[in-house]
Amino acid sequence: MSGESVILQSPELIELLVSLLFGAAASFLAIMVWTKTASLAWILVVVGILASYAGLLYRTLRVFGFFSSNSIPVFATTLGSLLSANIPQVLFIAALIVFLFREK
Fold first, then answer.
1. Residue of 15, 54, 49 lying closest to 32 (CA atoms)
2. In the chain, where are the structural domains located?
3. pLDDT of 34-91, one tens digit each?
4. What is the DSSP annotation of 6-63?
5. Pair 82, 74: CB distance under 8 Å
6. What's the half-sphere exposure (Cβ side, CA atoms, 13 Å) at 11?
7. 93 and 53 in contact (C-beta within 8 Å)?
8. Cα separation, 49 vs 8, whole angstroms
9. How would you classify the pairing of strands 73-74 and 77-78?
C-alpha cells in the first residue's frame, strides 16, 4: 500500500489538510485586508484570523508528533491547546466590542 493511499484513507488527515488549505487562503486575504485598513476593529479581526491559522498549524504539528501532548497541563488539557483554541475567539469578541463602541 502506498503512502498516498494511506493518507486518503484517514478522514482526520484529509480534514486537516483541507482546513490548512482554506486557512492559508483566509490568512492571505486577511493580510491583504490588513494593508488596506487602519480600523482597530478590522485589525483585531485580521489578527484573530491569523491566530486561528496559527492554532491550526499548532494542532497539525501536534498530530504529526512535533509537540508532546504532556506539556503544561491546564484543566485536563494542555496550555497550548487551550490558548490556540480560544485566542481567536477572544480577538473576535474584542473586535466586535470595538466596533460597537467606536465613535463615528
1. 49
2. 3-101
3. 999 888 999 999 999 999 999 999 888 887 777 766 677 677 777 777 888 899 999 9
4. HHHT-HHHHHHHHHHHHHHHHHHHHHHHHTT---HHHHHHHHHHHHHHHHHHHHHHHH
5. yes
6. 0
7. no
8. 28
9. antiparallel
Q: Which three cell numbers stand for residue 19?
A: 482546513
Q: Does residue 56 contact residue 68 with C-beta atoms inside 8 Å?
A: no
89: its cell numbers: 475567539
26: nearest Cα among 62, 52, 57, 58: 52
Kindly report the pTM of this predicted structure.
Answer: 0.80
